[in-house]
Design brief:
- The protein is α+β, with helices and mostly antiparallel strands.
- It folds into two domains: about 170 residues, no CATH class; about 190 residues, no CATH class.
- A six-stranded mixed beta barrel has the order 2-3-8-5-7-6, surrounded by four helices.
- Helix 1 packs antiparallel against helix 14.
């Protein structure tokens, strides 16, 4: 019974943690990314307003914002760091992303066209040693041709803000500038890299992306968030399935214990079973006795496991920090796992599935010993009594 309870509890906790990982990654990614991106095929898009208007015609599109995206080297003092530069319209960006709630210093609206301000990710700012008001030199890979040869294009920006979304990839490798400054820096004129969209239902992004790809007035690449960050979510989904299969073996082992325990009971109670048979008990009734006994063990074990698993899964954010402090270790390094806290999200479907599998395995485990008990010959069992 305790073996089944342990297996069920472990399964519920692990699945809840995997659900939490998936939700946490999705939330943090979409705080910076967008539900759908429409990009020009050659890296630039002219007349983005027409594209945005066509996208807005879809009833599931809530907001749109243009952006410019490019690579650059950031330099402060003797420190250099590579980063993605995203040119944004501060007035529109907060409609498609959630930077406002992740600003540690300054505001996104402090980005003004022509003032060449820059907002850095927290890890990037820390690596550069840059604070509000400091200057950061942005060096782009597109050079400038001069009589002396090809020279790198560089521009000094003033740090006006620092954001932290809690995902190392973005905090250490993304910087925001005003879209007009980005167009000047990358010499795009009035063109942009593309348009970012936010939907009413983020899970409708693949379907809406297909619809937009067929109706846009220009040739463009339409990518939804499930494609742009497919590796993250695919890895979590595969890991969840594999952990489910592996930990189901714990329940299977516990069910095997039921087989061995009931076989021992049948062997020990042969005389009693034989006496019941001589008093008129049918093989079917003997079979039912042991099936009910095994089902009772499985049911109680499953209920204990569900209760214990839910209790731990719902309090995992309190239990794990306590264990970390007690042992003096850190289980999650944010540079490796992208997040530093263990999330948990209990889903009713997972709990029902685990409980059903555990109960079915225990019922299957009772079949052989029950069948063996029903086949006991009363004469043979009582010969030496």
């Amino acid at each position: 019974m305790l073996g089944i309870a342990l297996g069920v509890a472990a399964l519920i906790v692990v699945l809840s943690v995997m659900n939490g990982f998936q939700e946490e990654l999705r939330t943090r990614i979409l705080a910076v990314a967008s539900h759908i991106e429409i990009r020009g095929l050659n890296g630039s898009m002219s007349g983005w307003q027409t594209v945005a208007q066509a996208a807005r015609a879809n009833p599931e599109v809530r907001a749109e914002a243009p952006f410019v995206l490019g690579q650059a080297m950031l330099s402060a003092g003797s420190v250099n760091r590579g980063a993605l530069i995203r040119g944004v319209d501060p007035a529109l960006e907060n409609t498609v992303a959630d930077f406002a709630s992740h600003m540690r210093a300054g505001k996104l609206t402090d980005l003004k066209p022509g003032e060449f301000g820059i907002v850095l990710g927290s890890e990037l700012a820390h690596a550069l040693g840059a604070r509000l008001g400091d200057s950061v030199v942005v060096i782009t890979p597109q050079g400038t041709v001069t009589p002396a040869g090809m020279l790198p294009r560089l521009k000094s920006f003033r740090v006006v803000g620092v954001f932290e979304v809690g995902m190392f990839e973005f905090d250490s490798g993304l910087a925001l500038i005003d879209i007009a400054d980005a167009q000047t820096l990358y010499r795009l004129g009035d063109a942009v890299t593309g348009v970012r969209l936010k939907l009413d239902d983020l899970f409708a992004a693949p379907r809406v992306a297909r619809q937009l790809a067929a109706t846009l007035p220009v040739d463009a690449e339409v990518r939804d968030w499930t494609l742009s960050h497919a590796n993250f979510f695919r890895a979590v989904a595969i890991e969840k399935r594999m952990m489910f299969l592996i930990l189901t073996l714990i329940v299977a082992v516990a069910a095997f214990n039921i087989v061995s325990a009931q076989v021992m009971v049948v062997t020990d109670k042969q005389a009693d079973i034989a006496i019941l048979r001589t008093q008129g008990a049918s093989p079917a009734s003997i079979l039912a006795i042991f099936i009910i006994q095994g089902a009772l063990v499985g049911t109680l074990g499953t209920l204990l496991g569900v209760a214990g698993g839910l209790l731990l899964a719902l309090n995992i954010e309190t239990v794990v920090p306590f264990v970390e402090r007690l042992l003096g270790v850190q289980f999650l390094d944010k540079t490796v796992y992208y997040i530093s806290e263990l999330p948990s999200q209990v889903q009713q479907g997972d709990v029902v599935l685990v409980a059903a599998i555990a109960f079915i395995l225990t019922l299957i485990a009772t079949i052989y010993p029950s069948w063996r008990a029903a086949r006991i010959n009363p004469a043979e069992a009582l010969r030496y009594e």
